[in-house]
Every structure is written in C-alpha cells, then in structure tokens.
C-alpha cells in the first residue's frame, strides 16, 4: 500500500483567538496555518504530493511542506535561538529552501521532518518574550513577535498556493482537515 498523508485533527479554532493574549493569538494563528498546510495534503499519496499541477510552475504540495520546514528552522532555530544548523533539504547554494528536488523526495520522511521541526521550533520559542531580539544575518534587529508575524504571512501566502495545487490534483477545496 502506498504511503498517504495523514488526516489532520484541528487543534485551533480561529473563533477562539479573538480575545486571547497576544502570545496565545500569534501561536494559535501559526498553528492554524501549519494545520491548514497539512490539511491540503491529507489523503494524498506521495506521487500526488510531488506532482506539478499549475504549469509552468514547478511548485508542489510536497515542496511547500519541505519549504516550510526550512523556513521555520531558519527563523526559530538558526536565527532566534542561534543554533548552528545546516539546511534540511537543500544546500547553501540552492536558495529555494526545499521547493526543488521533490520528484525524488521521500514524502513520509519529509512529513516526519516537518513535524519534528515544528516541535523543535516551538521549543526554541518557548520561554522567550515576544520583545526578545536577535540580529539577522543582514544586521537588522528583529523580535520574536516579528518572527511569528512573518511565519503567519508566509504560511498564508503558501496556503493560497496549496489551495490551487490541491484543487488541481483531485478537485478538493476548503480548509477542513
């Protein structure tokens, strides 16, 4: 039997985020977007996840999962926490942060890596204040709050891409997991 992306059990309801403290709101929105990307992949086999469906783009659902693992790792672990880590799916010259090379990618391994990165990124942010800062490689001072907002917009943009990719793959639409 072919590997299939697991169904998503939602842990966040957006309606519950309207009046919570800022940290809880930012974490909730980020988690909701993480789950949305996984929901867009749920029920698809590895070959479907690696298929390009919106020509001439080479973007794939599996590429988005790999990309977001790279992006989360970069901002939370490498930048904020200062961990000396390499890339997960790409080399330093690649520049595409996991989007390329999915035709030969192991989907099950990529999904496990994504889940692992999320746990490690959450741990890197735990106990830190939203106003805590670090200096980016470009010499700009940034806060943890900024990282949360950046990641939320990054997921929002790519979840829009995932909408089109999923619909073109099997006709499925919507955000349900």
Question: What's the structural blueprint in terms of helices and strands?
Answer:
Blueprint: H1 22-41, H2 46-49, H3 61-80, H4 107-125, E1 133-135, E2 141-143, H5 144-170
Helix pairs in contact: 1-3, 1-5, 3-4, 3-5
Could you explain the architecture of this structure?
- This protein is mainly α and 177 residues long.
- It has one domain: Up-down Bundle (Four Helix Bundle (Hemerythrin (Met), subunit A)).
- The protein is built from 5 helices and 2 strands, in the order ααααββα.
- The chain has helices spanning 22-41, 46-49, 61-80, 107-125, 144-170, and strands at 133-135, 141-143.
- The protein has a two-stranded antiparallel sheet with strand order 1-2.
- β1 and β2 (141-143) form a beta hairpin.
- α3 (61-80) runs antiparallel to α5 (144-170).
- The chain is globular and about 45 Å long.
- The model has no long low-confidence stretch (mean pLDDT 91).
């Amino acid at each position: 039997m072919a590997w299939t992306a697991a169904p998503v059990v939602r842990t966040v309801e957006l309606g519950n985020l309207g009046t919570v403290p800022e940290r809880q709101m930012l974490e909730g929105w980020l988690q909701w977007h993480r789950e949305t990307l996984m929901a867009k992949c749920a029920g698809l086999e590895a070959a479907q996840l690696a298929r390009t469906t919106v020509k001439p783009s080479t973007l794939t659902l599996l590429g988005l999962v790999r990309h977001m693992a790279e992006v989360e790792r970069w901002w939370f672990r490498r930048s904020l926490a200062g961990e000396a880590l390499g890339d997960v799916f790409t080399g330093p010259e690649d520049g595409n942060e996991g989007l390329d090379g999915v035709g030969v990618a192991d989907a099950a391994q990529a999904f496990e890596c994504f889940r692992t990165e999320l746990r490690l990124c959450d741990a890197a942010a735990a106990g830190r204040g939203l106003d805590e800062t670090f200096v980016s490689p470009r010499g700009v001072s940034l806060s943890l709050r900024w990282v949360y907002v950046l990641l939320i917009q990054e997921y929002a943009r790519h979840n829009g891409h995932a909408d089109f990719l999923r619909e073109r793959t099997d006709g499925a639409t919507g955000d349900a997991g």
